Structures are given as structure tokens and as C-alpha cells.
Design the sequence.
């Protein structure tokens, strides 16, 4: 279910939000560790990006100090002009004020250049990495736990496409005719299964205190970028990771089809300040995910496993900066509860550094056993993005007080987390491959489905579903 979380693009589109507030001081004071972190994550940084931030920040501080001194001197000259009774002293003060005004203007321009150098280089630097996260590529992932029934043996006859063809559940040919490769129609019980799984996952999240929302499928590319997703990369020619929407009005914002409900959910809190007493905020959103990079044809892209559009139920939380790690474990328990109800064999993985993308401080993946594919397949993920997204989206909170409380101290940035409650096509694959019922000749004749989704099932005239109590 991977969506490109590339380094933050330096080509920032038109935005209605303030400029991202990045921590130049932290970067400058930790050049070695930030550089090593980017290397461990294989982040596509511009050359010497971290060191460039440090140099530019040093220059920015020097210019700021000089600028403040000049401004103070200009104010003093202004006072002398007001108080002077001697014409010669007044002329000298006027001359000094004019000279200082020119110097201030020049320093302000130089300061802006230094700040822009900090900003552009800092944008590409990924989030820090949790000390317990493994280092390396996907193969270095650590299995934290396994759950559910004993996995049944791998068996090609359980391939979900074959079963769907026998039962009339999936129409890839028409999807290809109407739209293209990796598009599909769900039919009969598969269509009902999507609806039931969506409502089941929503109901579990709501029981855990999450507020249900439906999200826009179209978002500003600026919001996607601030969340850590790059609609286009910087290759030549640029590769598109999201579907771009064109407009005849050049003044219209650049819009994309959302790759995950995480993006509009994050944007929902943009440029807002909350009281710490309101946190955590817990939302569960349902929307459609659009992925332009469904991939080369292979077993991993067969059928429903990797498609261009799918329904996805997403958990999203906003916490104080000291509560995100405990919230991550709480969200994981909800994801495990959803999968436990589906009676699928699954395992929880702590994902390594090269799989974290730009925004995640730590990331868990959950994989379910898919016997028809003969392998485990990702059905869920969970990321703690700490303040990576909130610094870009300006999500802040006022500690231990109401919104009306005033304070001169800078407001801390909240932490954001997101996790998949249900990626519908992947769950359909797992349920069909584990629950297919065969006749004596090995032909699929029905489906055994978990009783947890029965309350959300719409009954139809066909009688191929058996409920596993």
C-alpha cells in the first residue's frame, strides 16, 4: 500500500497557509546526527543539505544581530532628531538616520536570502528516527508479534482472482476497458464485502472514541506536500505519484487526487491552535485512495493487491509532544482489534529506516497471510510523524490552559499520527484466499466470512456465504 513519501519538494505551490516553521537551530546543532539519519533512511537530499542549513543559519543569526543593532541605532538617531535644538546636530542625526535606513534595507534583503537558504535546504531533511527502529532496507524489518489462527498452507487454487472468477466477484476486464490496467469492478458479495468491511472498521474506531468523518478525495497539492507526500518527483522528466487535476483557470490552486485520507485529515487541522486540554484529537476518516504508481505487472500487482483506486478507512490523531509514543501503541491495539475480529493470521512489523519516508519517526506495518499468493501481504500501517507534519501545517497547542489564555512563549507544535483501519482491497484478498470454500473437484463454490462483519452485511439472493462463528 506504499505511497511515495519523498523528501519535501522545494517547489512549493501556491498556498493559503503560512510558510512551514522548521527548526533550523535543532538542525544546526545536530549536523552529524541529522546527516547520518538521512543516510540511514536513504533520503534523496541535495548535496550537503544539512551542512548548508547550519551555515545559512549561522549567517542568518549574524545578520539578525547586525540588523537589530542598526535598527536600534536608527531609533536612537530618530530620538536625537526629535530632541535636537541645534541645527548642526539635527543635520548630523538626519544624515545618520538616512545612512542607517539604507543599511537596514540592505541587511533585510540579505537576511531574507539567508533565511530562504535555510528553508529550502531544511525542507528536504527527513524526520528523526526512533532509536529502536531497525536500520536498513525492507528486509531488515523486525517482527514484533504474530496473531490469529495458524496460517493454512500456500495453495495456488486459493488465488483470489481465480476464486473471484468462479464466483463472479471481480471484473478486471471491464475495468480495463472503462479506465485501464489495475482498475476494477467489484460485483455481488465482493461489493457487499467492501461496504461491510468499511462500516465494521468505522464501528471499531468509533467504539474507541474516534470521531467519524468522510474526507474529500481531491486536495491541494500544497497540503499533500506539507504532509510529506510529493505529487511529482524531481527526476527528468518528473514522475507523477499522484493524479494531477488540470484546470482551465491558471489562478486555481494545483489539485491532486488524494493518495490517502491522511492528507485531508491532516489538512483539516491546518493553521489551528488547540488547548492541551482538548488533546488528543481522534478521528477516523473514510475516503478513496488514488495511486498512479500501481507498478509493473507481477504477482504483487495481480488482481486487487495493487490497484489505482481503493476505499480506505484511516485513523488520525493529534497529541501533545509527550504523548505520541503512547498514542501509537493505543492505535496499534485498535488495528489489532479490527484484524482479530476478521480471524486472519497476521503479524506486526517494526519497519526499518529505509521504509520510513520523509515524515515518519517510527512506522509499524501489519501483514496478513494470503495463501493464494503464498506470502504475507501488507494490510495496514501506522506512523508516528511527531512534529514533521504539524510544523508544515501549523498545528499547535497551548499547554495546560484554555485557548483564551495568553502567553509570550512560543507555542509548541502538536504531534500527528496516522494508521490504516482498513485498506479494503487488501482485506478482501486476505478474506477470500483464507475463506474460499471448494467442492471435491477443487472449484470455489462459496466463502466463509468472519461473524464480526455479519451485522454490517446486506443480504442478497445468492447463497454462497457461510458465517464463521
Sequence:
Amino acid at each position: 500500500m506504499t505511497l511515495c513519501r519523498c523528501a519535501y519538494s522545494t517547489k512549493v505551490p501556491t498556498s493559503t497557509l503560512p510558510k512551514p516553521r522548521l527548526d533550523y537551530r535543532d538542525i544546526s546543532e545536530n549536523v552529524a546526527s541529522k546527516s547520518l539519519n538521512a543516510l540511514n533512511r536513504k533520503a534523496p537530499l541535495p548535496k550537503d543539505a544539512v551542512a548548508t542549513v547550519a551555515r545559512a543559519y549561522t549567517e542568518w543569526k549574524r545578520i539578525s544581530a547586525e540588523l537589530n543593532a542598526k535598527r536600534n541605532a536608527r531609533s536612537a538617531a530618530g530620538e536625537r532628531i526629535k530632541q535636537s535644538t541645534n541645527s548642526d546636530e539635527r543635520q548630523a542625526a538626519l544624515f545618520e538616520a538616512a545612512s542607517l535606513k539604507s543599511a537596514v534595507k540592505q541587511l533585510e534583503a540579505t537576511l531574507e536570502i539567508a533565511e530562504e537558504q535555510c528553508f529550502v535546504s531544511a525542507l528536504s531533511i527527513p524526520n528523526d528516527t526512533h532509536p529502536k527502529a531497525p536500520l536498513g532496507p525492507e528486509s531488515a524489518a523486525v517482527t514484533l508479534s504474530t496473531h490469529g489462527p495458524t496460517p493454512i498452507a500456500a495453495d495456488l487454487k486459493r488465488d483470489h482472482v481465480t476464486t473471484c472468477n468462479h464466483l463472479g466477484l471481480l471484473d478486471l476486464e471491464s475495468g480495463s476497458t472503462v479506465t485501464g490496467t489495475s482498475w476494477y469492478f467489484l460485483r455481488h458479495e465482493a461489493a457487499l464485502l467492501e461496504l461491510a468491511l468499511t462500516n465494521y472498521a468505522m464501528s471499531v474506531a468509533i467504539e474507541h472514541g474516534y470521531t467519524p468523518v468522510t474526507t474529500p478525495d481531491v486536495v491541494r497539492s500544497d497540503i499533500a506536500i506539507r504532509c510529506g507526500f510529493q505529487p511529482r518527483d524531481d527526476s527528468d522528466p518528473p514522475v507523477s505519484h499522484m493524479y494531477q487535476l488540470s484546470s482551465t483557470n491558471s489562478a486555481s490552486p494545483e489539485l491532486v487526487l488524494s493518495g490517502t485520507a491522511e492528507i485531508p485529515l491532516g489538512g483539516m487541522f491546518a493553521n489551528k491552535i488547540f488547548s492541551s486540554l482538548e488533546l488528543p484529537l481522534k478521528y477516523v476518516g473514510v475516503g478513496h485512495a488514488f495511486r498512479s504508481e500501481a507498478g509493473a505487472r507481477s504477482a504483487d500487482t495481480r488482481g486487487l493487491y495493487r490497484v489505482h483506486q481503493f476505499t480506505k478507512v484511516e485513523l488520525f490523531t493529534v497529541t501533545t509532544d509527550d504523548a505520541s509514543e503512547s498514542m501509537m501503541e493505543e492505535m496499534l491495539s485498535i488495528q489489532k482489534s479490527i484484524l482479530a475480529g476478521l480471524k486472519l493470521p497476521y503479524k506486526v512489523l517494526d519497519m526499518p529506516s529505509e521504509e520510513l519516508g520523509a515524515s515518519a519517526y517510527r512506522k509499524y506495518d501489519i501483514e496478513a497471510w494470503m495463501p493464494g499468493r503464498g506470502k504475507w501481504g501488507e494490510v495496514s500501517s501506522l506512523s508516528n510523524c511527531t512534529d514533521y507534519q504539524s510544523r508544515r501545517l501549523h498545528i499547535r497547542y497551548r499547554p495546560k490552559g484554555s485557548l483564551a489564555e495568553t502567553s509570550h512563549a512560543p507555542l509548541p507544535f502538536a504531534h500527528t499520527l496516522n494508521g490504516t483501519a482498513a485498506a479494503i482491497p487488501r482485506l478482501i484478498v486476505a478474506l477470500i484466499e483464507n475463506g474460499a470454500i471448494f467442492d471435491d473437484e477443487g472449484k470455489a463454490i462459496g466463502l466463509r466470512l468472519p461473524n464480526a462483519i455479519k451485522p454490517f452485511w446486506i443480504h442478497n439472493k445468492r447463497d454462497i456465504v457461510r458465517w464463521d462463528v
